[in-house]
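Hi R.,

Here's the chain you asked about this morning:
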Amino acid sequence: MSAVFLILLLLPAGAGVCAVARCQLAEGLAVAMLGLVAAGYLLALAGLLPLLGLLPWAAALAGVILVECRRGDNPAFFRGLWQGTAAFVLLALFYWWLCRGHSLADWDDFSHWGRAAKWMFTTDTLYTVPGCDDGYKSYPPATALWQVMLLQAGRWVWRGFREDILLYA
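And the predicted structure, written out as tokens:
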């Protein structure tokens, strides 16, 4: 369920960027994801981290609107989007299959991001605040912001903090 939810949440945002920029889906998804992280960082700096989960929903809605507005402009372009969509869905499902049921371990490369994301998820503050006991405060928060954003966007699908969703994100 989590894989289908995240795929359906991210595809419209990437397709919306493709509709405006006339690029391939891989490029559109990358731009959409980077834009979401940048907007999330601005929200976090403003102290509005609880609103982080609304960003993917807003981006998906904007993507659907942009695609519908541009649909009649170039039908061949939109037929070509299906190839990128199929590749993205297959790869995303493969990564979900690899990450399902896993948890973060102390020896893996993602455990420090997991601690930062858990801090941000439970306290609704950046992990660089003085009260945080995380040892990696000098790391940029983009990865942890992305993970927390997707966790908060799907709070009604999965309950609480899920480490397998962090790895999948």
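The chain has a mean pLDDT of 79.

Let me know if you need anything else.
M.
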